[in-house]
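About this split. The held-out portion is used to measure sequence recovery: a designer receives only the structure tokens and must propose an amino acid at every position. Recovery is the fraction of positions where the proposal matches the reference. Here is one held-out target exactly as it appears in the evaluation file.
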């Protein structure tokens, strides 16, 4: 009896862990909100981000942008398309919410804190692992990178 109970607990615990480690299921439809509920009105286009952050450590802002990619492991980070080709890396505040994988290509409004950061090689390699890049490509990451970052309180799909 103890063995059966132990096996069930193990199986149940593994099931919960597996469920937690998955991105949310869903279609990321217009109006869907993730994290804090926000209104899209008053959002600034992502092309203005450089101007907003210039001369300051960080800025609280609401921006509109297209999702370029979503963390394939859990949906715990996204990158946004910038016109210059350099993506803006977005993490969710307090790791409190995730986005479904099919949010790629969607226009969203994000509210939170924008800033520039020098990202370490170790952290860049970690995100490369999340993207399931090859070990060879990960090994090519040898220099830290200055990049835009965004810490999102909430995200709403607008297109």
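Reference sequence for scoring:
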């Amino acid at each position: 009896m103890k063995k059966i109970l132990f096996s069930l607990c193990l199986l149940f615990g593994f099931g919960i862990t597996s469920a937690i480690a998955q991105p949310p299921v869903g279609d990321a439809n217009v109006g869907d909100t993730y994290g804090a509920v926000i209104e899209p009105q008053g959002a600034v286009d992502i092309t203005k981000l450089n101007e907003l952050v210039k001369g300051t450590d960080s800025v609280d802002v609401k921006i509109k942008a297209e999702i370029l990619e979503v963390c394939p492991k859990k949906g715990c980070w996204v990158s946004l398309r910038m016109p210059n080709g350099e993506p803006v890396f977005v993490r969710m505040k307090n790791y409190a919410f995730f986005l479904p994988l099919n949010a790629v290509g969607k226009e969203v409004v994000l509210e939170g804190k924008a800033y520039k950061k020098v990202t370490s090689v170790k952290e860049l390699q970690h995100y490369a692992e999340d993207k399931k890049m090859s070990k060879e490509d990960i090994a090519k990451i040898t220099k830290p990178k200055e990049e835009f970052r965004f810490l999102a309180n909430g995200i709403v799909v607008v297109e």
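Annotator remark: Helices lie at 2-20, 49-53, 121-130, 135-139.
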